[in-house]
Write a structure and sequence with these properties.
By secondary structure, this protein is of the alpha+beta class. The chain is about 30% helix and about 25% strand. The protein has an eight-stranded mixed β-sheet, with helices on both faces. Helix 4 packs across helix 6 and helix 4 crosses helix 7. The two termini are about 30 Å apart. Bound molecules: 4-amino-1,4-dioxobutan-2-aminium adenosine-5'-monophosphate and magnesium ion. Magnesium ion (MG) binds next to strand 15.
C-alpha cells in the first residue's frame, strides 16, 4: 500500500506505474461510462482521484462506493486528462472493506459547521479540517520533543495522580477509589471524599512543575509534556478541564534565561509548522483565516517585546484615559484579562510580549520574590489572537520566604516537605515555564475555539465518551 502523501514522489519518478491505495471515500461523481471517486487516507489533506471504468465493473460494487466507505484500489497511477489534478489512478481492482450508509452517515459531502462537528467528535477526524488540525497537533508535539532533546533536556514523566496542589489555586479534580455503590456519607449526608485513594486525599494534577523541579535539581534540564486537569468552571473558548502542558525546568537559569528559552522555543515550534505543515496550513488559511500564515511568520520573525507588569498596566491606564473601553477594570494589582493582553500585543506594541515582575498576590507561591517586596520574577508570554500562551517564573530558593508564601495561600508544610528538600540540600537558582499545548495549537491552526484543537475535549458540559 502506498499512502496518498507518497504519490507525488512516485509520480515524479515515473508515469504510468502500478499502485495500491486504501482509504475513505470523500465523494463520488460520474456519468454512464466512468465514475470518479475522491479518496482520502488521512496521510495528507489531498485526496486522490480514482477513475473507475463502469463498463468493466460490477454495478453492485459501484453502488457500495459511497461517502464514508472504506475501500482499497489497485490500479495505475497516470497523468490526468482532466483538470484539477496532475495525476490520477485508473482502477483495475476495487475492494470494499466497509460500507457506509449514505443516508445515515453524519458527514455529508457539504461542509459542516465546527459546532456541529463538536457534537460528532467521534467522526470529525474524517473531515479535512479536523484531520489537518490533528496532523498539525502531531507535528507540534514532535517539534517540542525535538527542541528539548537537541538542547540536552530530558523528558520527565510526572504523576497524573498527586496529593499536592501545585498552583495552590484549589481547582483540582478528586481521585477516588471508593465503591460507588457504598459511598461513605458524612453527618450532613454528603459524600465523604476524605477516605479516598487508599486513605489519602488525591487529585488529578494541575501541573507537573513541582515534580519537574525535583528533576531539574538532578538532571540539570528537564521538560514534562502531559495532560493536566483544572476544575475551573470557565466555559470560554480558551479553557479546557483537561489540557496538555509542556513544562521545561532548568537549573542555574534565571528569569532572563527563562525568557530567552520561551522565545526560542515558541519560534522553533512555529518555524516547524511552516516547514512541515504547509499543505494543512494553506487549507486552514483558505477556509478559516486568511491571515494565518502571515501571522505565524510575523511571530517567528519579530523579536518579542519584554516589559514589566507595572509598565503594561501604565500603558493600559493611559489607553483608558484616552477613551479605550475594556470590559474588566485595569489597575496595579489586577489580574490582566485577555482583552488587556491582546490590546498590548495587537495594538500597542504590535509584537508578541513577554511580561514580567507581577504583583506577588496574583501569582503562585513558588515564584521568586523581588527586592521591592511587592513583585515576583514571573513571566507570561502573550501572543496575538490568543493572549497568554505561556506562564512561568524563576523559582524562590529562600526556604523561609517560600514557606511563608505557601502558608499565606494555605499550603501546609507537611504536604510540601519533599519539595522543600530541594531547597535544603544543594539548592540552586532555577526557572521554568508552562506552555498550554492547545493554546499553541489555537495560534498555529487559526481555530478560535479550544474545543477544536484537541481530539476529545473535556469541558464543563462535555465528557460524552
Ligand atoms: O499559567 P499556568 O497556570 O502556569 C502553570 O501551571 C505553571 N506551573 C507553569 C510552570 O511554570 N511550569 O499555566 C500555564 C499555561 C497557561 O499559560 C496556558 O497557556 C495554559 O497553561 N492553561 C490552559 N490551557 C487550557 N485550558 C486551561 N484551563 C488552562 N489553564 C492554563
Ligand atoms: Mg498563567
Amino acid at each position: 500500500r502506498t499512502t496518498i502523501k507518497e504519490l507525488p514522489q512516485l509520480a515524479q519518478r515515473q508515469l504510468p506505474q502500478p499502485v495500491c491505495v486504501k482509504g475513505w471515500v470523500r465523494t463520488k461523481r460520474g456519468n454512464k461510462a466512468v465514475c470518479f471517486v475522491a479518496l482520502n487516507d488521512g496521510s495528507t489533506i489531498h485526496s486522490i482521484q480514482i477513475v473507475i471504468d463502469k463498463t468493466q465493473t460490477d454495478p453492485k460494487l459501484i453502488e457500495q462506493i459511497t461517502t464514508g466507505a472504506a475501500i482499497g484500489v489497485v490500479g495505475t497511477l497516470v497523468a490526468s486528462q482532466g483538470q484539477g489534478q496532475e495525476y490520477e489512478i485508473q482502477a483495475s481492482e476495487i475492494t470494499i472493506y466497509g460500507t457506509s450508509d449514505p443516508v445515515r452517515y453524519p458527514l455529508q459531502k457539504k461542509g459542516h459547521t465546527l459546532e456541529f462537528l463538536r457534537e460528532i467528535a467521534h467522526l470529525r477526524p474524517r473531515t479535512n479540517t479536523f484531520a489537518a488540525v490533528l496532523r498539525i497537533r502531531h507535528n507540534m508535539a514532535y517539534a517540542i520533543h525535538t527542541f528539548f532533546h537537541e538542547r540536552g533536556y530530558f523528558y520527565l514523566h510526572t504523576p497524573i495522580i498527586t496529593s499536592s496542589d501545585a498552583e495552590g489555586a484549589g481547582q483540582m479534580f478528586t481521585v477516588t477509589t471508593l465503591d460507588m455503590n457504598k459511598l461513605p456519607l458524612a453527618k450532613d449526608g454528603s459524600v465523604d471524599y476524605s477516605k479516598d485513594f487508599f486513605g489519602k486525599h488525591t487529585s488529578l494534577t494541575v501541573s507537573g512543575q513541582l515534580e519537574g523541579e525535583l528533576g531539574a535539581m538532578a538532571l540539570g534540564g528537564i521538560y514534562t509534556f502531559g495532560p493536566t486537569f483544572r476544575a475551573e468552571n470557565s466555559n470560554t473558548p480558551r479553557h479546557l478541564a483537561e489540557f496538555w502542558m509542556v513544562e521545561p525546568e532548568v537549573a542555574f537559569m534565571d528569569n532572563e534565561g527563562n525568557q530567552d528559552l520561551a522565545e526560542a522555543f515558541t519560534k522553533h515550534c512555529l518555524q516547524w509548522a511552516l516547514d512541515h505543515c504547509m499543505d494543512d496550513l494553506e487549507f486552514l488559511a483558505e477556509h478559516y483565516d486568511k491571515e494565518l500564515i502571515e501571522r505565524i511568520r510575523f511571530v517567528v520573525e519579530r523579536p518579542f517585546v519584554r516589559t514589566t507588569y507595572t509598565e503594561g498596566v501604565a500603558i493600559l491606564e493611559e489607553a483608558v484615559r484616552n477613551g479605550k473601553k475594556f470590559e474588566f477594570p485595569v489597575y496595579w494589582g489586577a489580574d490582566l484579562a485577555s482583552e488587556h493582553e491582546r490590546y498590548l500585543v495587537e495594538q500597542h506594541y504590535n509584537a508578541p510580549v513577554i511580561m514580567t515582575d507581577y504583583p506577588k498576590e496574583i501569582k503562585a507561591f513558588y515564584m521568586k520574590q523581588n527586592e521591592d517586596g511587592k513583585t515576583v520574577r514571573g513571566m507570561d508570554v502573550l501572543f496575538p489572537h490568543i493572549g497568554e500562551i505561556i506562564g512561568g517564573s524563576e523559582r524562590e530558593t529562600d526556604i523561609d520566604k517560600l514557606t511563608a508564601r505557601a502558608q499565606e495561600v494555605g499550603i501546609k508544610d507537611k504536604d510540601l516537605w519533599w519539595y522543600l528538600d530541594t531547597r535544603r540540600y544543594g539548592s540552586a537558582p532555577h526557572a521554568g515555564f508552562g506552555l498550554g499545548f492547545e493554546r499553541l495549537l489555537l495560534f498555529v491552526t487559526g481555530m478560535t475555539n479550544i474545543r477544536d484543537v484537541i481530539p476529545f475535549p473535556r469541558t464543563p458540559n462535555n465528557a460524552n465518551f
